[in-house]
Request: fold
Amino acid sequence: MILDYLKKELEKEVDDFILIKQDLEMSNLKFVNNKIVKTGTEDSSQIGVFAVKDNKIISTDLKESDKKSAKELVKNISNFLKFTKQSGNYFGIAEGPFKYKKVPGLFDKKIKDIDEVDIVESGINAALENAKRASGTFMSATGKSRIITSTKVDAEEESSSLYFSIRSLISKESSNHKTLSSTMLKDFDVEKASRLSGEFAKLACCPKQGKSGKFDLVLAPLASSSIFGSLGDAASMFSVEAGLSFLTGKLNKKLGNFNMTDDGRLPNGIGSSSFDSEGVPTQRTEVIKDGILKTYLHNTSTAKKYKVKTTSNAGLIAPDSTNTILEGKTGNPFDIKKGIYITNTWYTRFQNYATGDFSTIPRDGVFMIENGELTQPIKNIRISENILNMLKNIQLFGKDKEQITSWDSSSPFISSDVLVKNINITRPTV
Amino acid sequence: MHKELADFSIKYLQKKGADYAEARLESRSSNSFMLKDGNLDASSFDNSAGLGIRFSINNSLGFMAANQLSKDHIKKQLDKAIRLTKRSSKLAEKVEFSQEQIQKKSYKVKQIKDVREISPEEKIKILTDLDKSINPQHGYYSLSDKLVKKYYINTEGSRIYSEIPTINFFYLITLIESNKSIQRMHQYGTSTGYEAIKKWELEKNIGEEIATLRTNMIKGIKVPKGKVDVICAPEVTGIATHESCGHPYEADRIFGRESAQAGESFVTQDMLGHKIGNENVTVIDDPTLKGKYGFYLYDDEGVKARKKVLMKNGIINEFLHNRDTASQLGVKSNGSARANHFSVEPIVRMSNTYIEKGDLKEEELIKDIKKGVYIKNFMEWNIDDKRYQQKYVGNEAYLIEKGELTKPVRSPILEITTPAFWSAIDGVADNLKFFAATCGKGEPMQGIPVTTGGPSIRLRGIKLR
Reply:
């Protein structure tokens, strides 16, 4: 109702607009040292508004659902437009209407009836089979979104998501972290992930100071997401223009031997939906194929600017990645003489986003690999590298892919264990 | 504001058997502008309100947030939150809060140039004038302001109203020349009105930065080999203090409450009184500093904020507490509970954290160095989840030879353990400066305004890379 009213009011005032109404219901539990320390619920409803007049772009939102507030918002938009400036980067939004094909596994109504406490308890108990303590978070959400644009788009869909994060500890230095992300309850195996986390925490016991130098690394998906997850952001045309991308100037160039896909239609994908934020039907885009950068991620405006087609990655302001999939030649990444297995890493920070110089800190179970076997756990090391160099040195992927979102890396990333050769490891000098 | 809804909520919770309840009602109005290579890519404004309610029932802690502010809706959401919290009690940690004084206060930050009264046109002009003046090869800037009105009430009788504005300016400059490239990303922030912009001298400061960074990129030499003395200028001192003194002294980390998120701490509760740094060093966290980005007078648990001495002459002196961690240690909260939004719970946070200034001039610190490196600012940094080993990579840096800055040095890397860092400081200058930052913690992630700061400090005998 309110959307239709807002649409009518905006039609009188602006050239182009997008309205996205999102209703969300969330619950979360935080557990620390085997006990629940907080439960939380959140209920929110809002309409995201993108409006353009004479190439002046405004974004805002409306939280109330009454006509008076909607009218006031449109008045404020008109006033704001008087003062703001034209953008030379605006080239329109997508012309609808479109036909949409449903993405499988976006919504699971069973999520509304889950027992969060039982789920958390089963996770803690499974971790404690090997660990001394377990901490983490469980979150569930269900939502509904509807999009209406000035260009004849009108679409809606329901979605759901589950997230479980567990860190099992034997001591402060011996730990392991696993996360699970899914849109559906099936395959959301909290016990299995927690048990594995506990087992790895035990394996990680009593680490020794790691050495610096060049090493072959096997990165678990959680570690890989913290490094290669940045590919999704780097591929956005917004990042390329803003100086935030190491992929700038790399179109049609060979970056290594792997494939990177942005898949907005991935079944059970946290970043999946039937349409992007302009209402364009989502698609699967091969961003890097056989190591060659084929395209950046575009919305309608950036696509027109660069004379290409939109990749249906519109966010309300700039192109956004959906689900970033990293894959390539498969085999056994652990089949090496000597290397390091990194289960998790965090605090990935760039010295220069454009060149890709960065470092990140492995944590939660780092092991030497000798003749294909995990041996001595190590600690206090850092990957200090260039991300283009790391991409170039990707050799092999394991078979079992995981969908990762995590505290340090919220964009959905899908990959398996990956072997990366000859990577620079540093450690504190004092 | 719908203060009556906050009042109703805590009464309703008491009626439903809550031992304790508190409500934070927030109303926010904000504006933001983004300029990329001279183009105004987006202008945004937002007016919103919402209610965050925390309560304890059957000894379990519950939280509820909603942005639909009607009595019926809030009641329905509270019932849902109570059900979940009661269900969790079989596995819940018994919640206990420290006993604190009841506070009844109202305060507003006085603004000379009110964030609500400066037109969007003037705000945009700040960005476009800056871009024209400094004319970088690539410049990406954002300017945002916000006024948060907050009404806090709890069942113990505290009732606090505040109005705090904040302004944040962020920039990323990219310089490229002869296959070389250098970037500078930095932010300015204040909890005052737009009068702060003039004081920031953006055109002068960023213009000078561009000139020196270009020289650094082209003429910068490699870091000297072997052990050298290092001067961390205020910006580097500030980030190191925040990361390796502020964070590890957060009591919730020490007790493991952030274990699966922002991590724990190498510091344990029995390390109070333990010597960790040079006696020249004292570290403060003070939310009451007017105008600083991390300013507040009462925290989000209704506790009066105060200056805390985290490290006193090299000795661990005090942790940052909320009412939960204070209760666990048998002390009073020192007013460090903050939430970045009504929709999230308050957790232990820093505010304005800095090393106290010393007696020496920066020139005196440099004068005593035969061979060393002066690190003015940084880009890349990180620290492990226990806050034990950290890295800062200099952006603008210089070689020190016989007490003088001589040549630019390219990307010196300070990779060091926390005890080694604090023990190596043998001199503290008097040039105390503050820098705005956004600190991340919690799940869902809460980015909160803070200030990092300090004077120039000298570290002896450090191997850089």
Summary: Chain B touches chain A through 91 residues (CB under 8 Å). The CA atoms of residues 127 and 439 of chain B lie 24 Å apart.
